[in-house]
Every structure is written in structure tokens, then in C-alpha cells.
Design a protein that fits this description.
single chain, 122 residues, alpha/beta, Rossmann fold, two-stranded antiparallel sheet, 44% helix, globular
């Protein structure tokens, strides 16, 4: 059964596009637009997965992952990092910080759904 996915990205159009794709696949979505609200929204929405942009206002996606690890109730939530930055070093930094997968922008939507299903174990 699909669950809720928190989309953290500072670009409104990207959040909307990702939400359309995920909702079409049966997932619920929640949103945060910056690093400061990402952890609070994760606490209130209790998502099964977080799609996390690395470049955010108020801090990086790496910082958000570190903060998530500090909350026992959130530390188990898998993260898929997304970024338009240089793929190799960004992916390496994201995985080292705890991301389960990395998707470069622009996001391939078939790969998005395949990665989400794989990370959620379905």
C-alpha cells in the first residue's frame, strides 16, 4: 500500500510536478520548501519517505538528514536525495549523510517511481 511522501524542495513547480507523479502512482504527499521547516513537517506528517533537495534555503539537505537522525521518531525514515548539482560529489555526500538513493535533476519520472518503490521495499 503506497504511503505518504514528504517532498522538500524550494522550487514550487518541482514540488507540484513531483506531487502529480506520486499522486498518480497512489502516494499521498506533504511539502516543505526549506531546511528549517523540513524536520518540523516530517514530525507532524510522519511520512514513509522523504524526497529531499540538497540545495535549500536555510541550510542544506545534508543538514536536514543530520537533524532527522537526531530524532528517534524520524531517524528511520528513508531519504532519497535530489539535486541539480554536480552528480558524483553530491551523490557521494548525500549517501554518506544517510540517503538511501540519489536522483539528479531534471528528474526522470520513471526512475523516480522505480526508486521510490525500491527504497520503500515494494
Amino acid at each position: 500500500m503506497p504511503g505518504k511522501i514528504l517532498i522538500v524542495d524550494d522550487e514550487h513547480d518541482i514540488r507540484e510536478l513531483l506531487a502529480l507523479r506520486l499522486k498518480a502512482a497512489g502516494y499521498e504527499t506533504a511539502f516543505a520548501a526549506d531546511a528549517m521547516t523540513a524536520v518540523n513537517v516530517a514530525r507532524s506528517e510522519e511520512p514513509q519517505l522523504i524526497l529531499l533537495d540538497i540545495g535549500l534555503p536555510g541550510g542544506t539537505g545534508i543538514m536536514v538528514m543530520e537533524r532527522l537522525r537526531n530524532f528517534p521518531a524520524l531517524a528511520h525514515i528513508p531519504v532519497i536525495a535530489i539535486s541539480a548539482r554536480e552528480p558524483q560529489p553530491t551523490e557521494r555526500a548525500a549517501v554518506e549523510a544517510g540517503a538511501r538513493a540519489f536522483l539528479p535533476k531534471p528528474i526522470d519520472h520513471e526512475l523516480l517511481l522505480e526508486t521510490v518503490r525500491r527504497v520503500l521495499g515494494g
